[in-house]
Design goal:
Length: 279
């Protein structure tokens, strides 16, 4: 069910509309992300006999002594696909399957060992562990996050209250004026998502963001992703919550051990994945 095979057979991208539906929608399919035989390899350097701590590594650097060994982790293995403007694509797979690594490669945060990644526009990666300044208030983090995404101060000021309201940070008090270190992990994740979702992105990648927060926030998040798609962006969602994938995405990429096993319509891929995980 590879994307190349489906494209050759139907003339439409995998996991999207049928030929009849495509004929009713004028305009060509516009690629936003192309991965060609992408390989990502991590190299982990460590000392012998378990001496792999940061202190041991620093000592080897200072003394210019070689390490006691190197381990290669082949995290992504020959992945190829094409994403199109207006799509929401789910990434599924067991822990350690390479989902987050693939997103980082698309965002330009990890170099390819071999193969290529092409993007149209600026990819934006949103993860639950995205860095924010814990000693600064939520208010200041909204400003800094907006600036980091390329928004002007005027844009941030215009969208500030919407970001706060969307996050729900102030539903139980004036938390937006408190330092981020006083937030729960769920509150911090909701604020990160709200900042990222305040801007229309060429390519928005969300790593487990919808797994946090209550059902009301998850519904708001899913609705916002649909709005981003209408504004001609492409959304990638990594989640272990199959319901979120079903509610949000029309196409799914299934990775296992770094390899792309299936690429196709959401329901078809999830059925096969659920069979695999129930064994």
């Amino acid at each position: 069910m590879a994307v190349a095979e489906q494209t050759e057979q139907s003339g439409a991208p995998a996991g999207t509309k049928t030929e009849a539906e495509a004929e009713q929608t004028p305009g060509p399919w516009v690629p936003t992300v192309i991965a060609e035989d992408l390989h990502i390899v991590y190299r982990v350097y460590g000392g012998s006999k378990g001496k792999g701590s940061a202190t041991a590594a620093l000592n080897r650097i200072v003394r210019r002594k070689p390490g006691g060994g190197m381990r290669e982790v082949h995290a992504v293995r020959g992945v190829s696909f094409t994403a199109y403007r207006g799509q929401a694509i789910g990434l599924i797979g067991s822990n350690g399957s390479g989902k987050s690594t693939l997103l980082k490669a698309i965002a330009g945060l990890l170099p390819a060992e071999s193969g290529k990644v092409y993007t149209d526009g600026q990819p934006s990666l949103l993860g639950v562990n995205a860095a924010m300044m814990n000693d600064l208030t939520g208010e200041r983090n909204v400003v800094l996050g907006g600036l980091a995404m390329g928004m002007s101060r005027e844009e941030i000021q215009h969208r500030y209250q919407g970001i706060v309201d969307f996050s729900g940070i102030n539903e139980k008090g004036d938390f937006i004026t408190l330092p981020m270190r006083t937030y729960s992990s769920g509150m911090a994740a909701r604020l990160r998502f709200s900042i990222a979702a305040a801007k229309n992105h060429d390519v928005l990648m969300i790593d487990e963001a919808l797994a946090t927060g209550d059902k009301r926030f998850q519904k708001r998040s899913e609705a916002r992703i649909r709005e981003l798609r209408k504004d001609a962006g492409t959304v990638f969602l990594v989640s272990h919550n199959n319901k979120s994938i079903r509610d949000t995405c029309e196409r799914v990429l299934w990775l296992e051990k770094g390899e792309l096993l299936l690429d196709g319509p959401t329901e078809e891929v999830l059925k096969e994945y659920e069979k695999f995980t129930s064994k």
